[in-house]
Specification:
The protein is α/β, with parallel strands linked by helices. The chain is built from 13 helices and 11 strands.
Amino acid sequence: MTLERVSIVVPNLVQHLMVTGYGSFTPCFLVFVVFWLTYTSSITKLEIYYRTKEDFMHFITFSRKMGTNGTEISRQVAEKLGYHFYDTAAIENAAREMGFLEDVKEIDEKVPSLFQRLFSHKPAIELDRLNSVVYELAGRGDAVFLGRGGQILLRDFNCALHIRVTASLEKRIQNLIERGMHREAASKAIEDSDHERSSFIRFAFKVDWDDHELYDLVLNMDKLTVKLAVETILTMARSDEIKACSVDAMKSLGMMSLQSRAEAALIEAGLTYGPAGTYIQIQVEEPGKVLLTGRVDSDVTKKRAQEIVHKVKGVGSVDNRIMIAPADRHA
């Protein structure tokens, strides 16, 4: 439910009370009268501004190392706050709804091979589509994201709280042993997981996974229980310092998701970068409205770009300002 307005503002309300003889009563009694009159329809159009739960949107992102109980902590936080919980299964379900399941499964926290990165646009397409899924889910309201670079994708939103869950290597090994793994297997699994996740973040976002400046709170689980970690995060999440998302911020998420989908469509069609410096850029300045700029070598390519983008789900109109400049074949 969005911001609702039920109309007479305070001056008109006071005037109404004075006229009806209620002006001499105490403020508490006047409040009672307002609601009583509203209930009995004595005031036909009372303008009260209020916000419902859905107006206060927040996001919490979790980055965790294997063996730290980070997954359990994030799940409990989502449950206690009543937020949507987006782990691997939930992200893939959303990707399936959007038609991107295979792309997301291929890139999800995994680094493409060197050959793919050098000679294929497929990793860029898959990454754009994964990002669009995260933005789309964030736009649906209160959410907890587990992994997938949420701490970077949502870092410009004041309504996002970014949590890092870590622990010493020995503590992590012991946690996995308690789950039934042998020490050697636990050590190898942790090494492989750390390498895979840190490499994915560096490939996708060009940042260091262990950079503490990416996070609002870093929890070292060597001395903390899951319960205490959850309570600490809940205290932060419910504090006044963690602001709610504005309407504009929520709108921006939808626009960012649309831009990622449109970029992926152009990359897949081989149109983002062409011969001798030709290129196409995409901007989404309003929901559903896409602006195309850049330079291509023919009117055919310009029209094709517009047709491809127009077919992307969520695109309502395309403002095609691409310039035509035949490629310099001697460049």
